[in-house]
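[Solved] Which block belongs to which protein?

Original post:
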Amino acid sequence: MRERLPEYLKRPVIDTDTTRTVRRILKNRCLNTVCENARCPNKNECYTKQTATFLIMGNVCTRNCRYCNIGCEKPQPLDSMEPLHVAQAVKDLGLKYSVITSVTRDDLPDGGASHFAECITNIKKLAPDVRIEILTPDFKGNKDSLNTIINAHPDVFNHNIETVRSVFKIARPQGNYDMSLEILKYVKDNSDIITKSGLMVGLGETYEDIEHTLSDLKNSGCDIVTIGQYIQPSKQHLPVAKYYTPEEIKELEKLAEKCGIFHYQIAPLVRSSYRAAELV
């Protein structure tokens, strides 16, 4: 039996002219968002601020992470017009800060790095004043793919560690904890791009586990960290081992600062791109 969701993790449904406008623009441009596909609890808040996190390269993933609501199936071919459509939507929405993420595409030779780069290039052409944050998969640690991203030069490179080492293989069986750290370090060592990562809590980790992960991120040169509560998307996903109270989550700020991380967003409903512009 699933434990009842605490009240402080619930969000109201918001339906306004602004949220409808955002949905219409996304639909007209045939775009996916992580807001919808990953069932983000902050979706309506973001839509009221006329923003969204674009999900590129389709809405099905080649990996089956046990916490994620996005389905694992055979992906469709890339839409060559998607980078332009993303840029047009950024312009239509009047964004000052855009966030682009993707499903994992292990079927592509470069993991989709060139598609990310095209999105960045198109946004810079159509909306040159917009800052760009990308949240990428691990590209299997491929340095050529990372160089493609570095050369496109987003303002922020985000790659989520997602969880602590002790839980990692359970939650992300096709991922690699050390590889994710190496990716962040490679981007930091080879560019002036701001680096960012995030993790969920509530999967059975200890405070010591969290501290070790924060130290690992700091040692990888990570500039910004986000931490939020894991919420089980369905009965088929990993169960929640613990709901942290707001007070317990607040304590994680002290852990971050102890590890030398002073730029963070830590709260129960924080997700990777939540209030990203404010944080940067």
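(Second protein starts here: sequence line, then its structure tokens.)
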Amino acid sequence: MNPLFAIGIYWHLPILLITFSLVYSATRHDRWDRILAESVGWMVRIASFLGMIGVGLYVLSSYPAYWPYLTGAGGAIFLVYWWLTSRKQDTPPAA
């Protein structure tokens, strides 16, 4: 099978990102400058989210022997993040 054909299903992804972000931004704003500014932000957020998922899946599929270590590292990062965010909520607001 041609490798170019294998990635052919992803050719519509940029069009979907642009369309989704423009429609979502247009439901929140009326002015074109704000619509375009927020749609660019949404495109960056969505593309980085999908990119992180793709990199994670690539790493996990390329190095299957390291699953326990990567899972432990991910769990440790999540616990540190959870601990830091829970500490912020416990502090009283500044007067």
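Accepted answer:
You had them paired correctly. Confirming on the second one: The mean pLDDT is 85.
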